[in-house]
């Protein structure tokens, strides 16, 4: 049956909801935020489609057009809206009171309206601007949205017609079509589209974006923002986009030329400041190409009177900052600010106590590259032709002390961190001793007897039979991994201390001690020896073979007593953390992904990774995570001339260098 409904004008104030309206049970449909666009459109364009109404108790119930009715009520209530009052009449179509298909009419009005095709919407916005003379501002007002949202739709509506046609024909996806908006020039879009479709019939959005990058650099890209001022000064062409951040610097060659000039200037500034022989620049630092380069490092120097005075001032300030950082009431921002200040002061102190040798300055240089959105300086590099051929020559010229420098790219550990790691390693060794009482008892007895019988010459300085507990100083004891502390505490709880009664005389205590079982005595001796063991790092196999072999026996894997955590990673530079992930742990893809993250995010990732290796790791990656620790923490260690850590140094960096 075909029905024709009589036109009628009804005052807005006489409109009411109809119980047969299919949206009547969804009041959220009429919330102000859900009809804001409709309200704006009616305010500018008027009511374009009449409401379908039926008389109910002297009012007009809205069968179809409930959202339009809600928008009209909003306009009446809005004092800023002109021309809308309760008496304002609007066009309606009247359904007879005896109609028995009211619900069907309401449903048909709502369900038969097909959603608008996205491309149709984009093109409609573009026609409003091109044909109707509208602006993004007037369009935004008409539809109650933001200017940025309108410009976003307009950009897609202005993509080359051939590409839009391909999206309509489903030759490419809508996302792929949108990717072409990365470049505002329709001609460039068409050229890239034709080139890509010749190579591959199936296009992906990623492929399109990568291809467009060769046709220019967006002004919002980190390189675009870095060179834009100079680029415009030289008359470089810019393809303007409706959204400024998507405008493109079209002359890619000029962009690269300016970037290299800026990098060269930064490298030269660093060269002049540090006194190196040469400076160079490259857009991207090619690690494979640079593998043949050597690197020199600064060595310790004796500070003059003024420098020593400044060092003393820094030391005093660092002590004060450490006290402030112990305040448990500090929020994260305040704590991080103090931490950054400590790092800066420690670096200043190192700069006052370290310098490059004249020989190294005469052959080394600086390379500046672009990385993670900023200039990165690679300092102290030695070109292959200048690298010494003899190993001894390299060792003698690596630093002023004559010691061999670390390999290029090796992580250097500041003295403060090295000392703290030495303490943590000693704590782990103490835990291992307490867990191996029989072996430690033998060590203690051997040490006591051999020292007496071997003309008083100490076999090792690592343990001392002088009943003096070793004081293990640590800058951040509250933040270290507590595995070794818990193991030692458990060993202490298992000790039989019944003989150690202050109410007894020493003779009675000794008698009770002698009555203990041999195994209990071994535990007590092991615990006492563990408490007196000195902090020590690498051991020379020849000079200290006793402790070298003993450590391997009782502590083959330090990770059984110690786990790297956020406290350690916080003291590493961002670049070091990425190096550890990519090179030491085999997580190259994760390192690339995290390169653009903040140091805080990378520290959190590493902390979680070492706390419980991810299920997605390969067997090799899992093994690397389970075994990793700083080189000086490894049980076997590295042969050295004494029981002190190797003094490794930092690479100086300028303010624009990449830092953690």
Automatic annotation (TrEMBL):
Q: Which residues form a coiled coil?
A: 304-362
Q: Which InterPro entries match?
A: Chromosome_partition/occlusion (IPR050336), HTH_ParB/Spo0J (IPR041468), ParB/Sulfiredoxin_sf (IPR036086), ParB_N (IPR003115)
Feature: compositional bias, Basic and acidic residues: 383-393
Give the record's keywords alphabetically: Coiled coil
Residue ranges, annotated region (Disordered): 383-409
Record keyword Phosphoprotein present? no
Q: Which Gene3D superfamilies match?
A: 1.10.10.2830, 3.90.1530.30
Q: Which PANTHER family match?
A: CHROMOSOME 2-PARTITIONING PROTEIN PARB-RELATED, CHROMOSOME-PARTITIONING PROTEIN PARB-RELATED
Protein's name in the database: ParB/RepB/Spo0J family partition protein
Tell me which species this is from: Mesobacterium hydrothermale
